[in-house]
Amino acid sequence: MWTFLVLAAAMVAAPPVDVLPRGDHRVKNEVVFVESEALRAVRLVASPTAGFGGVEEVEVGQPFPYSLKYGTKVYAVPRGIELEFPSSFRDQDWPCSTVEIGGHDTASDFSPVYARLITVKLLAVGPERLELERVDRVEIDQNGQPVDPSMIYLRTAGWVALGLFLLIALRRHRQRRAAKAACSDPRTEEGSGIAEQL
Amino acid sequence: MPASPLEALAATLAVEVAVFLVLGGLLQRESLLPLVWCAVGVNLVSHPLAVAVFLKEGVPWLAVEGAVVLVEVLLLRWTLGWGWGWALPLVVAANLGSIVMGPWLT
Fold first, then answer.
1. Distance CA A77, CA A96 (A)
2. Which residue of B has its CA nearest to A165?
């Protein structure tokens, strides 16, 4: 009984981001920085703001995992400063920012997206925040190939068109049959009208 | 292993065609072919649209299902000329069936 209550309480207390909704799958988000003028003056460190571990120095052109679940932020540390890597940078006073991913850590099972690669450029480092520009955003499928959203919409349009064609054909077929039935039965009001017209 | 949209469509058709046949046949005494034809047509319209909406992250599942029911009722009324009183319960039953049975079939 107590085990059940503790488990139930733990489930209620768990943050919603920990729950993978039914019919969804995980999406791996990665960020890569491109070379920029502002980047020459600082070192970038990616750190989650929740949980433990996951702090790593960002190398230009090297994708690093970006967790929306653990609230990854990118911190800018002036070059020349001896840097220790604590388990998290969340208590550090260095200017930092999140990266605009444009999605979640999960996607519907219907979605072909299993990963995203966001390419970002550091434009400037402010006293508190970083000015970032999203250069590119590529969604990747299970086989590591880029996802083409236009194909999804084309396929949807094709199925819908086929469904509508079937329904229109059925409706016309029934209308024709009803007209024929009415026409062949002169006792009905409609039938006599049509018979007169013919 | 998650179901592909095509597998999900096949599972939906399997369940909803059966519900259309049983309930449509019993309630409206509609013959077999128009019911199958209509169930397939209605689902070919609603299911891919629902999947496309599901791909937009953050859309509530219940809202999508509600929209699906509304679209299917309107299409059923337009195609077979049924009233709301017959079309709505049939579509709700068919969708409940596919929600419950879908995961078992895929």
1. 9
2. B41
Q: Which of B2, B37, B80 sits opposite A109 (nearest CB)?
A: B2
pLDDT, tens only, B28-87: 778 888 999 999 999 999 999 998 887 776 678 888 889 999 999 999 999 988 888 889
B41, B51, B75 ranked by CB distance to A110: nearest: B51
Q: Which has the closest alpha carbon to A77: A63, A57, A60, A62?
A: A57
Interface test with B, best of A148, A167, A171 (most B CBs within 10 A): A167
ipTM here? 0.88
Residues of A in contact with B48 (CB under 8 A): 155-156, 159-160
- The order of strands in the sheet holding A42-47 is A56-58, A42-47, A73-78, A96-97
Supply the pTM of this predicted model. Answer: 0.64
For the segment A151-164, the average pLDDT, to the nearest whole number, is 91
Cβ of A110 and B54 within 8 Å? yes
